[in-house]
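Q: Given only this backbone (285 positions), what sequence would you predict?
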């Protein structure tokens, strides 16, 4: 998952609504910037102000771009250092197979996992490494496929994982979005040249109940999105495939043991766990 228009829109939304810690940021898998230039320009102006954004944009879009342009996005959000980890990407600062536990001997204000964990066979090891490197008050930021991305990676990650994981590890949910039709929405942002998306208007609300008819609601919405793309596709065009993602920011709240605790899925857990999951709401500020 690159830093597409929809991901940059979510980062902009999080910066507006969530307290972002200052400090170093660790990225699992270096992300390319795929958002259209007007989207990036608006993001930088919003986060840095017009005067400071100008030189940054000049550097990003110079004839010889910076070696790590994605670092500029995180710097605009207030992070002071950028470190990336990947096994096969030559741009990574740390070359490491995320199927194996990562031990950098330090913690970070944020650890991002944008479209990386679904490609890791031992995905739980990657999630454990993400948690292990979070400072107290730090944010685990995740954008991972949930529905429709067949064969893109090994896994889809369902909303129940993030709520149950938060409860098991006493983490706060700083933000939790179920973003339907990620590709279509991202293309629309690129076309209109804006990083502003009304996340409150999204049709699927993952914290308002994930059981009962939730699966039906998701499936029917997915079918509507697919049908809409098929109706608007040109005669020679294949319909755009539809993909839903969860975009989640989890805050580590205590200096607890660095090993991620295994969650129980709420419907099969104790009444106390079920009650805790049902009461989860974003904790902002």
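A: Predicted residues:
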């Amino acid at each position: 998952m690159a830093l597409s228009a929809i991901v940059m829109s979510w980062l902009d939304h999080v910066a507006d609504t969530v307290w972002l810690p200052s400090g170093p940021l660790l990225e699992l898998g270096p992300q390319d910037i795929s958002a259209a230039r007007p989207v990036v320009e608006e993001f930088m102006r919003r986060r840095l102000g017009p005067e400071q954004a100008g030189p940054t944009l000049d550097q990003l879009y110079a004839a010889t771009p910076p070696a790590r342009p994605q670092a500029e996005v995180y710097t605009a959000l207030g992070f002071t250092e950028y470190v990336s980890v990947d096994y096969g990407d030559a741009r990574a600062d740390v070359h490491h197979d995320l199927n194996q536990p990562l031990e950098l001997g330090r913690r970070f204000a944020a650890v991002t996992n944008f479209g990386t964990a679904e490609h890791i066979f031992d995905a739980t090891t990657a999630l454990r490494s993400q948690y292990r490197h979070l400072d107290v008050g730090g944010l685990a930021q995740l954008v991972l496929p949930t529905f429709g991305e067949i064969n893109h990676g090994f896994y889809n990650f369902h909303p129940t994982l993030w709520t149950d994981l938060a409860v098991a590890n006493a983490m706060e949910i700083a933000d939790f979005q179920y973003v339907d039709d990620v590709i279509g929405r991202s293309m629309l942002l690129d076309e209109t040249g804006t990083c502003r998306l009304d996340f409150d208007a999204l049709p699927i609300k993952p914290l308002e109940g994930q059981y009962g008819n939730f699966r039906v609601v998701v499936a029917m919405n997915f079918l509507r999105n697919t049908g809409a793309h098929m109706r608007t596709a040109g005669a020679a065009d294949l319909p755009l495939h539809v993909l839903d993602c969860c975009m989640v920011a989890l805050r580590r709240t205590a200096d607890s043991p660095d090993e991620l605790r295994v969650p129980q899925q709420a419907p099969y857990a104790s009444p106390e766990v079920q009650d805790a999951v049902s009461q989860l709401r974003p904790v902002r500020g």
